[in-house]
Design a protein that fits this description.
Blueprint (H helix, E strand, L loop, with lengths): L2 E5 L12 E13 L1 E4 L1 E7 L16 H16 L4 E8 L1 H12 L1
Parallel strand pairs: 1-4
Antiparallel strand pairs: 2-3, 2-4, 2-5
Length: 103
């Protein structure tokens, strides 16, 4: 199952670390011939003054989530791939997906 990880920003903290915490997942089915899952996992820096309040991707305004969906549709349309969005889920589902993929 291909997956995409999207990180808030890539700066290192003062210790040179890049710790991230998942805030959610957009479950996606991609179709070009056959269908396959192609979920998008969202993470933010663990200790960042910019993202400290974002605990769950579903807390973003609906227009921001809509903009993300439009972006994914547009980038996949360039490759003649069709996307079906299966739903937005929070950090627990994202963490479970990450652990399952790490096995």
């Amino acid at each position: 199952m291909p997956n995409t990880f999207i990180v808030g920003h890539l700066e290192e903290d003062q210790n040179g670390e890049r710790r991230r915490r998942p805030v959610g997942i957009l479950e996606v089915e991609k179709k070009k011939g056959k269908s396959e899952r192609n979920d998008r996992i969202f993470a933010v820096p663990d200790r960042s003054p910019l993202e400290t309040n974002l605990k769950d991707i579903r807390d973003l305004p609906s227009h921001a989530r809509d903009d993300l969906e439009q972006f994914f549709r547009a980038t996949n349309a360039l490759e003649n791939k069709e996307l079906k969005f299966l739903g937005w889920h929070g950090p627990n589902r994202a963490t479970k997906t990450i652990k399952r993929l790490a096995r």
